[in-house]
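Attaching the record inline, Q. Sequence:
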Amino acid sequence: MLDTIRNLQPQIPLIAAKPVKAKIIRAERVTPITTGGLVSLPRDAQWRADFTSEMANFPVGMHDDVPDAFCHAMKAFTTARDFKTPELNVPGRLVSDQDQLEQEMREEWEYENNSRIGDDF
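Structure, as predicted:
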């Protein structure tokens, strides 16, 4: 896919991203960005309704490619780990690898414990 986009649109800078956690965990990590009002969409964009519908139906909707790509993009804008290469500057606040690892471990622990709590009901 990357090669196809690079051939069709060489002006678009692309970064290959290797998923490191489940889609739902990646989505939970960027939720504060959207709920905090830090993301906006063009009001007159033709794709806006489809985008918001697919995002709203995640993770139970028929498709999850758009939400997953969105989560990767938001992570790329907010962290350096897993996306930043030494020769590439990624916009946003950069987090050290150690801080990011600690945050991921905390979030994974919280996710697992919250899932267990929900199983009891």
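DSSP finds five helices and no strands in the chain. Residues 5 and 11 are 10 Å apart (CA to CA).

More tomorrow.
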